[in-house]
From TrEMBL:
InterPro entries: Diphthine_MTase, WD40/YVTN_repeat-like_dom_sf, WD40_repeat_dom_sf
Organism whose genome encodes this protein: Elsinoe australis
Name recorded for this polypeptide: Uncharacterized protein
Gene Ontology biological process terms in this record: protein histidyl modification to diphthamide
Keyword flag Magnesium: no
Amino acid sequence: MAQRVKSVSSYFTSSQPSCIAAVPTDSEHLIIGTYSLEKIPGCDFSDDDSDDENEQACRQEEGDAGERRQNRFGELLMWRSDGVHQLMYFNCGILDIAFSPHDPDRMYAATSTGSILYLRVRRNKRSMIGMEDFDIFMVVEIQVFKTNILILDLEFHPIHKNIIGITTSTGSVSFLNIQGLDDRTIDSTIPMYRPTTPSFTITIAELYRTTLEAWTLTFAPNGSALYFGSDDSTLGTAPLQPASRLFFNPVSPDPHPDIVGPHRLSQRRFGKQNPVLTAQTTSLLSAPASVISRTHTAGVTSILPLHAQGPNSILLTGSYDDRIRVVRPSRKPVARTLAEQDLGGGVWRLKLIEQEGGGGDERRWLVLVACMFAGAKVVEVRCQRWREAVEGQGEGDGGFEITVVAEFTEHESMCYGAEVVKSEQEKKVEGRRREVVSTSFYDKLVAAWEFGGKEGSSDVEGQSEGGRESDNEDEEDQDEDDEEDVDKP
């Protein structure tokens, strides 16, 4: 049975938390992105309103490109278990956060006004011994698209340091190549990291355009493919050229339809941003992008590659239809769902906690899931016959199973963010209890909780002294399920 855990500490933000990411050099420090929505006719954004129609309207409005300028406000918070250590305000909502795997100090944030915030997160040398802290420095805002377009997701290429993948509310799945913002053009002795050159260049290449919002994307760990999901229920695969052969040739006669024109940055000391150039995609793809549309019954919102070598990729996916799935999207054999589990809420984010297996034929993954109306959960994915799953031998299903091992249900609105906290001491201890921080939107809650370790500890609910479930638990679970069926989008 899944552990039902409760919070060990909590904090309330001043605006709605929408995303969260751990600082790579010290995951006890977390960056939380928020945004406040402008009130629009027919949509009441009051804090205590959890009505289903209101929630759905707000989520739809988030993905609506629209024709009018948005009026949103957002924050970036540097958070640790003892509270917020730094707070930055922006005239745009923060929708996603990504740290560079090539430079752990570099952070990009996707905004609701078509821009990307480039920031630096560095250790505070003024901190007392044993009380180290970090500072966030704003470097520059990069205006990529028109201001009525939302950048919904972004991720760094795992090998090519200047390339990031992004998705938008208009359905665009694109690559950006940003030149002129590397360490050679940034004076790190100045607190604001002022560039010493007057300009930088951006080249965009659209790999695919979906019919509705493109919610998510992720790279294969070796950079061989890009996977993406859309609100039209499609799951896409874009095979990529090797990193050494990824060339952006800005000679396309047709400019990207969403890009912004020449734009001067709000902070004049950073100089002029050159016009965004449009590149051909033929030099980026090793084969045309392909999509499947019958595997999911609602929008695809999260993707975690389990196997991404060769033609038979195996992906863990999340969807608005409340289900988490193990999917093999290749056409031979035809795209198949190898396992699935209803989690009771939209599966918004998937984060790998750990994985096991190597020489044998069994595999195991432990995954943290932000489940919107169903709170946050930890699921275990097991495969009994890995070679069969990868090579498509026999039945080809590999014997996959998905099990919920822990769940946190104190969130009173949509859980969009969850992250695992790993201290240096915890990283060295097997079988340790793990700390998680998860967030919910309208109630503005940031909650820390733990799972694993010894059963029946003080932060685990739903078990009596002998480990026997309470007599009324099944009835209570059914009541909760009925309520979630009413609330979910």
